[in-house]
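During the first year of the project, the team set up a workflow for recording each protein of interest as an amino acid sequence followed immediately by a discrete structure-token representation. This format lets reviewers and collaborators read both layers of information side by side without switching files. As required by the reporting guidelines, we include two representative entries from the current panel. The first entry is reproduced here exactly as it appears in our internal archive.
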Amino acid sequence: MTQERRLRIALIVVGVGLATGVYPLINLWQAGFRWQPAQPEYEQMIAVIMAVLGIFLIQASRDPFNHLSLIWFTVWSSLAHALVMAVHAVMDPNEWVHLVGDVPALMIVAAVLTMVTPRRLPPPTRASRSTRRDG
């Protein structure tokens, strides 16, 4: 399997997970994904931002090498979000369960995308060179 194919699959899986999974997880496993006191407005805002990001990742899967900045934004923003949540979870003993809920979920997203995303573009093939000159 090529690097591009692995990246496309990862983008689709992560994208679908973000687009459809965040809000249900908040409601299905409240201890691991709902911060107390419950704030429905906050949860809806986070869920919609994650859903939009997921949709854009799915779209990026069609041509991932032209969407590397979006992919790396997803990696670094997921790590930053997980770090902030981990700090808050450690500081508040009532929220420690997040260290096995949403914190690792975001770290897994970042790790998977990091493993399959190239640090730089692969060298162009003959077909892509002729397309670039013609287009």
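The second entry, processed by the same pipeline in the following quarter, appears below.
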Amino acid sequence: MSEELSLTSLFLSGFISATLLPGGSEVLLAWQLNEGIHDPWLLWGSVTAGNTLGGIVTFLMGWAIAHYYPMREFTKPRQLQAKAWLEKYGAFALLLSWLPLIGDPLCLVAGWVKTRFLLSLLMITLGKAIRYLLIIGLF
């Protein structure tokens, strides 16, 4: 795999795994770390940027949905859990946006309930960046 393609694929893997689409960037990150093609910091930056952008896209999807479909009661368990965390912790709950199964709905619901954008961006970025630092630390 070429060096540029490897970073692009890692960025896209991070992006897709942070949207409502299924995906996992951890395996690709681990493989690229083991291959040693790039500095770990470059890999961390690429996957963190993609994953953060995916989380923000999901947040903005929630914001757009709320604009066209005003708030209704959530009925799905993941949505209810996300809403409860957001009511209790506000944008700081988005530090957990990296969690499997709950992270994507958390970003969507945060946008839907109009959580402050800049604080949400910061919390999503921090949560995802720390997660990938931990993964890199394991390898």
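For the second entry, the following points were noted during internal review. Residues 40-68 form the longest helix (29 residues). The two ends are 20 Å apart (CA to CA). Both points are flagged for discussion at the upcoming steering committee meeting.
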